[in-house]
Amino acid sequence: MDVQRILVVGSGAMGRQIGMAAAVAGFTTAVRDVSADAAAAAEADMRRWLDGRVAKGRLAEADAADAWERLTFTTDLAAAAAEADLVIEAATERLDVKRSIFAELDALTPARAILATNSSTLASSTVADATGRPEKVCNMHFFNPALVMKAVEIVRNPHTSDETVETVAAVARAMGKSPVLLAKEIPGFVANRLMGAVRDEALALYAAGVASVEDIDTAAKDALGYPMGPFELMDLVGLDVTYLIRRAAYEQTGDEKDLPHPLITAKYEAGEFGRKTGKGWYTYE
Ligand code: CAA
């Protein structure tokens, strides 16, 4: 299937960057948010990012202008959905919200449109049955920051067709991304399971008083070549997201080893979510 128009639902940290990446790659893209203020803030942020690319000499001025021309920020779901070939839902991680968005999208988009969710915690089978097209529903999971990180996990549910997977993988490649295909749904998918294993070990080392947060991060970076230490990464992703991912995994498996680490729960309850609140494992100005 030939994808030309992409609709991103939700203009938060992920949605705005996914939309920008799609527009830079040549897709006509709409980013929709329920809140006009949120959409305007996302638009201003992406304008700054684009100007920064040009200033750094990473993007030609004409290409930036074309990308901007292809990108719209809106609150009008019906208008944005009417001609979409692919929808990437990046709204809040709540099942009731996602199910109603998928039911609405099913009614508003053309029958050909693929409906993907960027969710890292909710497998697409939990929203596919809110639509009449489960074969066109899958996870298309980007990583933070989505403009930079190359991997995109494409997770099929039991109904997802091969054509859907191939089309979404082709879009990811056109965006300069590397698709990671999952043959079945599993909590955490692949990358977050790998990240979780490193994070759990880092938390265990810190809790046992073996080394400081800073020194564990230094080991990850300067011994293993990771771009960020596990504590820095938790602050980037958000300790709220980290907590909620583990709660969601526990709710799906009932396995106590999937519960959030007590140190994560404490940060979550203290409202210390990382960069977004100015304090997490580190303090930010
Ligand atoms: N948005 C857009 N672009 C950004 C950015 C952001 N938030 N942060 C950095 N960049 C860009 C910079 O503009 C720069 O681009 P150029 O080289 O073209 O100028 C490039 O990224 C490198 O940035 P910096 O030199 O400032 O810093 P860095 O080399 O430390 O890279 C990083 C920053 C890319 C975030 C890097 O530290 C990194 O890869 N960290 C690991 C991130 C990671 O693991 N993400 C996965 C999170 S898990 C997840 O998202 C899944 C989930 O379900 C929760």
Automatic annotation (TrEMBL):
Which pathway is this protein assigned to?
Answer: Lipid metabolism; butanoate metabolism
Domain 3-hydroxyacyl-CoA dehydrogenase C-terminal: from-to ranges: 188-284
Pfam families recorded: 3HCDH (PF00725), 3HCDH_N (PF02737)
Keyword list (alphabetical) reads: Oxidoreductase
The 3-hydroxyacyl-CoA dehydrogenase NAD binding domain is annotated at 6-185
SUPFAM superfamilies from the UniProt entry: 6-phosphogluconate dehydrogenase C-terminal domain-like, NAD(P)-binding Rossmann-fold domains
InterPro entries from the UniProt entry = 3-OHacyl-CoA_DH, 3-OHacyl-CoA_DH_NAD-bd, 3HC_DH_C, 6-PGluconate_DH-like_C_sf, 6PGD_dom2, NAD(P)-bd_dom_sf
The record's family statement is:
Belongs to the 3-hydroxyacyl-CoA dehydrogenase family.
Q: Which PANTHER family match?
A: 3-HYDROXYACYL-COA DEHYDROGENASE FAMILY PROTEIN, 3-HYDROXYBUTYRYL-COA DEHYDROGENASE
Name listed for the protein in its UniProt record: 3-hydroxyacyl-CoA dehydrogenase family protein
State the organism of origin.
Sinomonas cellulolyticus
Q: What is the lineage of its organism?
A: Bacteria, Bacillati, Actinomycetota, Actinomycetes, Micrococcales
